[in-house]
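Lab notebook, bench 4. Still working through the backlog of constructs that have no structural model yet. Next entry is a single chain of 233 residues. Request: give me the structure tokens for it.
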Amino acid sequence: MTNNATHQESHHVHKIGWLRAAVLGANDGLVSTASLIVGVAAGDAEFNTVLLAGVAGLVAGAMAMAAGEFVSVSSQSDTENADLKKETAALRDTPEAELEELAQIYVDRGVDLGLARDVAAQLMAKDALGAHARDELGISEIVTARPLQAAMASAATFSIGAGLPLAAYAVAPTPQAIPVVIVATLISLTGLGVLSARAGGAGALRAAARVTFWGASAMAMTALIGYLFGTVV
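Model written out:
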């Protein structure tokens, strides 16, 4: 027999808002900055030129990530708020119809009609809008849009990610700068994949392979462009 007093499950869905933005920011910071450095350096640019390009990419990228996350998540938040306003008006004007609507949702999930109506009535008596937001609209406190949180997480992790290939290039001997940046970035991407997978409760191997593959592909493409066109520009 299961002891309900001691039975506990650890879930990770409450992290989805900031975790998605943080992983996206760190991955983009690593890949875009490393690719920029490798591409410019492959075109025989001077050390200071490459470093300046990397720093400019870090600042511009962090601001772009913050702005993009804030705007996109704000749009999601606006849509959620608009739907909640409509639901508030419907609950005020046609409460009986809204109760039947909520009960039907539970019936569709396999609950007997009589019990579904009882459950809907009890939930609406306590928090009608919350019940409809959660079960009709799919909006809950856990997954609701938080624009500022997403923007700050994305910008901060982008800066951290971008700083790693920049630091690697700054300390590497000039002849080995490109290989050092590539290796450091691939190691960092692998670590990012493992950390993000563990934070989200997912498998580490697939996550690490996924981010490493796309990072390597991006650096290979920019290096090729640098080698082909760097001396021509």
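Notes after review: Residues 9-15 have pLDDT under 50 and may be disordered. The radius of gyration is 25 Å. Flag for follow-up if needed.
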